[in-house]
Amino acid sequence: MDTLLLARLQFAFTSVFHFFFVPLTLGLSIFTAIMETAWVRTGNEKYRKLAQFWGKLFLINFAVGVVTGIVMEFQFGMNWSEYSRFVGDIFGVPLAIEALLAFFLESTFLGIWVFGRDKLPKPVHAASIWLVAIGSNLSALWILVANSFMQSPVGYNMAADGSRAEMTDFSALLFNPYVWKQFPHVIAGGIVTGGFLVIAISSWHLIRGTRERQAFQTSMKFGSIYAFIGTILVTLAGHTQMQDLMKSQPMKVAAAEALWESENPASFSLFTVGDEKELKDIFALRIPGMLSFLAYNSFEGEVKGIKELQLEYEEKYGPGNYIPSVITAYWSFRFMVGAGTLMLLVSLLAIFKVIRENYTFKPWIGALMFWSFLLPYIANSAGWILAEMGRQPWIVFGLLKTEDAVSPSSVVSSGELLLSMTAFLIIYGLLAFVDLFLLKKYAAAGLEAAE
Questions:
Q1: For residue 197, what pLDDT is reported?
Q2: HEC states along 300-362?
Q3: pLDDT in tens, 379-413
Q4: What is the pTM of this model?
Q5: 124-139 pLDDT per residue, tens
Q6: pLDDT at residue 246 greater than cutoff 90
Q7: Which helix (H) or strand (E) holds 153?
């Protein structure tokens, strides 16, 4: 196995694993802050208990997320030294700001929130958890500023010898249009993830006949609304981002739809079996005009196909294969959309139950409510796989290919990569076990255990 493949596998594993924790951190921090605010405004003890309960689960998730995120920083210099050399002048800036500003804000006020209970005035204590939520989401923003440069490079000039990209305009980097399409999508994904965990755990306690029934009914009510709002927002943000991709990365859209030939109007694939070598359909079931509607809000409009885009890229960037893995892009998009559709249906069902104040669940509905917490994880992971794999063969779109970004094999050997990847698999497996054990323990223990 060559170093490029191993480096890609290692980064894919660590980044997907890390992103299991990020959306829940984003969404659950806001939800905890809402519960805390409700306590300050009403003085009702159930809100205080709910804030402590969801805050404890947030803390467990946050701790493991921090540990797994630090590892990724080291991989940029170790496994991807040529990438760091090429883009470090730009990529390092938002990462440094994220650590020094957003993460310190988040972690400092998290400590104040944890240890300041009953020592600070209630409004000040509530403000601390809101600053945690703001810090968490600002962390996501700065990470996305860095990632968006990889997707759509702006605010740079190439060095005179062409060896590296150098920042010339920080404001262009910060206000990169790609960031402000991507950031709402990620935040909405976090809200959805937090909302469905609240639905799952609240419904589990209600089904088991908890002594804290009234509190978990309230939690179920807030969680259902929270999840529904998040699902609507993530759908709208995703639609906007897809339309932006038509301009910035049309090959990603074509691959996600297995669209070999340009079409006007363009059809949307319900199910396609394709031949990637021959760039043609073996079997396809498509909705006429629907892809044009998604791309342009009109049933008319050309969407360029893979063949035409390949020729354009060859003319622009030189000889080479500029087609990503179509099967990966196609199915990751469908897993994301499919999970999103199910989330909308489940959140509507949960709201229907809440409106009727019916907190009894038939066995199949109870199982659906509980296991629905997996849907955001499927959607989040599939979405990031599409975002990163659909950009291939580029690590920085139009500037640097992934194969040119890996550390030379003379510096980092395939044996060293294989050893470190095996170690990560073991350590991350243990972390996952500890995280799930603690989440299950304190989620099942209820409100009293969170005191």
A1: 93
A2: CCCECCHHHHHHHHHHHHCCCCCCCCHHHHHHHHHHHHHHHHHHHHHHHHHHHHHHCCCCCCC
A3: 999 998 998 998 989 999 988 899 888 888 767 77
A4: 0.88
A5: 989 999 999 998 889 8
A6: no
A7: none
* Contact (CB, 8 A) for 314 and 251: no
Report whether 221 contacts 358 (CB < 8 A).
Answer: no
Cβ contact 364:400 at 8 Å: no
Domain boundaries, the chain: 3-249+324-444, 252-321
The alpha helices in 152-283, defined as continuous H runs, are 170-174, 177-207, 213-248, 250-256
Q: What is the largest CA-CA distance in the chain?
A: 70
Here the contacts of 120-124 (C-beta below 8 Å, separation 24 or greater) are 122/39, 122/40, 123/40
**Secondary structure tally for the chain: helices H, strands E:** 16, 6
Per the CB < 8 A criterion, the answer to whether 98 and 139 are in contact is yes
The tokens 């640097």 sit on which residue?
Answer: 400
Q: The tokens 């691959």 sit on which residue?
A: 255
How many other C-beta atoms can be found within 10 angstroms of the C-beta atom of residue 319?
7
Question: What is the distance between the alpha carbons of residues 90 and 75, in angstroms, rounded to a whole number?
Answer: 17
Other beta carbons within 10 Å of 59? 17
Q: In this model, does residue 449 exceed pLDDT 80?
A: no
Residue 401: name the closest of 8, 6, 26, 1 by CA.
8
Residues ≥6 apart with Cβ < 8 Å to 369: 199, 200, 203, 346, 349, 350, 361
Q: In 73-198, which ranges are E strands?
A: 156-158, 165-167
User: Whose CA is closest to 149, among 93, 102, 72, 82?
Assistant: 93
Place of tokens 């030939």: 261
Element (DSSP H or E) covering residue 394: strand 394-396
In sequence order, which residues have a C-beta less than 8 Å from that of residue 144 and are 6 or more positions away?
179, 182, 183, 186
| Partners of 275 in the β-ladder | 280
How many angstroms separate the CA atoms of 313 and 257, rounded?
19
Distance CA 386, CA 22 (A): 18
> Which of 306, 270, 264, 305 shows the shortest CA–CA distance to 287?
270
Is the bond leading into 123 cis (omega within 30 degrees of zero)? no
Token representation of residue 2: 């060559």
Contact 414, 6 (CB under 8 A): yes
Distance CA 190, CA 22 (A): 8
Cα separation, 404 vs 36, whole angstroms: 49
With tokens 């997707």, the residue in question is: 151
